[in-house]
Design goal:
Strand content: 15-25%
Family: Belongs to the cytidine and deoxycytidylate deaminase family. ADAT3 subfamily.
Protein name: tRNA-specific adenosine deaminase subunit tad3
CATH architecture of the largest domain: 3-Layer(aba) Sandwich
CATH topology of the largest domain: Cytidine Deaminase, domain 2
GO molecular function: tRNA-specific adenosine-34 deaminase activity
Organism: Lecanosticta acicola
Structural class: alpha+beta
Keywords: tRNA processing
Radius of gyration: 32 Å
Distance between the termini: 67 Å
CATH class of the largest domain: Alpha Beta
């Protein structure tokens, strides 16, 4: 009897374990999401902020050629990391001490109807809430060298000869900041603590829009009455895989394909892995030829996609049926033998178990659809490379898998390292800009595990491994847009 896949992470787990959906990072998010860039910063009195910013816009050409709108242009000292602030500066602290007592000295007056003389302290001025000191993000270091920038800023107050120059000598610092926008509030908070105050603008330049992900997760997590939940779909997929495993024809993996129309769900196909099902030809069953053992077409996803195709044809309207029959007749006109028995034996896309037959015989698929367009797929295990590409070509809409397959899986994108699980092949086929179709994908993890999004971000040293592995050229200019970031945010 075939055994369970050994590269699966599953152990003997309790039946009632709590799980959560964790959206997978895309390949671009892993490869570019932690790229950094060097920038110049300078500290100045807040009252001179607008003047210095205007001087930079007038004298630093190309300072807005790199899109850094996810970073605050002006930052208050209390929001900056310690390495950006540097050592404590007593001169600046003395400069910022209020001197209202110098401008308005105390006076002596006599209270009415008494002979006592009292001191009158001037009323405190209203605080305008404006910080006395700000840090300005000037421009990327590759835009202008330090000497040129120093000569420009030294011509303007407060860095020129002025009443404030003794407390604020021109000191330009080089720091590291994220090049691209964060993809989650948590990532924005982390970058704010490690680099520079960062905005999260509810967008993801590397994958699906957060609003679309939130809507999909809400539909999957909170199903309407009579709709199939994630737990129910995955339990059904496990049943299908177990039945095939008990028959000795599969590896224990299973899949459920579901259609969602007007908020209502229908289970279209259920399939278990049948890669070890005996084949019609003798060579496939010959123990002396192990390379022939196990049909790739018997993988659970390949079988389920084939079942959807058969049901599409069966549920199609009459014109579509005639067109399909005409296309099939081309085999005969081309001199090819149309052997339906051999076709069925090769593709293994007919039901084998009673559970598969139960859902296959239902004509519950919306007619005249295209392949598996926007259908939802629930998997016991992350699919292999071949099956991952089959999902892309089939135009599925959503995929949820329960167990990561680090040695064979084609959907996860982590290549270098993470803190909560084994790294995979790093292909991330669910969402790649090179492909003509992308779909949202989740890993259904136990709640006591940290998911893909919460894994430790890849740092700059790890990014070098990505670039070496993929031979990425021109990474310094990747995903750079010509949008101005010369806005004042305090």
């Amino acid at each position: 009897m075939a055994t369970m896949r050994r590269d699966s992470r599953t152990d003997d787990q309790p039946a009632a374990e709590l799980r959560k959906m964790t959206h997978l990072k895309t390949k671009e998010e892993c490869r570019l999401g932690n790229e950094t860039i060097q920038v110049w910063t300078v500290e100045l009195p807040s009252k001179h902020a607008e003047g210095i910013l205007r001087a930079i816009k007038d004298n630093v050409p190309g300072q807005d050629s790199v899109d850094l709108q996810h970073l605050r242009r002006f930052a208050k000292p209390k929001y900056l990391p310690a390495h950006v602030l540097g050592k404590r500066d007593l001169v600046k602290e003395m400069y910022n001490v209020s001197r209202a007592w110098e401008a308005t000295p105390s006076t002596v007056m006599q209270a009415p109807a008494t002979t006592a003389w009292e001191y009158s302290v001037p009323a405190k001025g209203r605080a305008n809430g404006r910080p006395s000191t700000l840090h300005l993000l000037v421009c990327p270091t590759r835009i202008m060298d330090l000497r040129t920038l120093h000569s420009i800023l030294s011509q303007y107050t407060p860095f020129s000869s002025s009443a404030d120059s003794w407390a604020y000598p021109l000191e330009i610092k080089e720091i590291t900041v994220p090049l691209l926008a964060p993809t989650s509030p948590r990532q924005a908070n982390t970058w704010s603590e490690e680099y520079w105050p960062t905005f999260y603008r509810k967008t993801n330049p590397f994958g699906a829009h957060p609003a679309s992900i939130e809507k999909a997760e809400n539909e999957l997590h909170n199903p309407q009455e009579d709709n199939t939940s994630v737990d129910e779909a995955l339990a059904l997929a496990e049943r299908a895989g177990d039945e095939a495993l008990r028959r000795g024809i599969g590896a224990g993996t299973g899949v459920v394909i579901m259609e969602r129309v007007d908020g209502e769900t229908q289970i279209i196909a259920v399939a278990g892995d049948a890669r070890h099902k005996p084949q019609a030809n003798a060579a496939a069953n010959d123990s002396l030829h192990p390379c022939c053992e196990g049909s790739p077409m018997g993988h659970a996803i390949m079988r389920a996609v084939g079942m959807v195709g058969r049901k599409r044809l069966r549920c199609a309207s009459q014109p579509v049926t005639r067109a399909a029959a005409k296309a099939e007749s081309n085999f005969t006109r081309g001199g090819l033998e149309h052997d339906t028995h051999a076709r069925d034996a090769f593709f293994l896309d007919l039901p084998i178990t009673p559970l598969e037959e139960e859902y296959f015989k239902k004509d519950n698929l919306k007619p005249d659809g295209y392949l598996c367009l926007k259908l939802e797929v629930f998997l016991t295990h992350e699919p292999c490379m071949m099956c991952s590409m089959a999902l892309v070509h089939s135009r599925v809409g959503r995929v949820v898998f329960k167990n990561r397959m680090p040695q064979t899986g084609g959907l996860t994108a982590e290549l270098v390292r993470n803190d909560s699980g084994p790294v995979g092949l790093g292909y991330g086929l669910c969402w790649r800009k090179e492909l003509n179709w992308q779909f949202m994908c989740w890993e259904y993890m136990r709640t006591d595990e940290q998911g893909t999004i919460e894994r430790q971000d890849l740092r700059k040293d790890s990014m070098e491994k990505y670039q070496e592995a993929e031979d990425v050229g021109g990474g310094e200019l990747a995903n750079v847009h010509s949008n101005s970031f010369a806005r004042m945010h305090v």
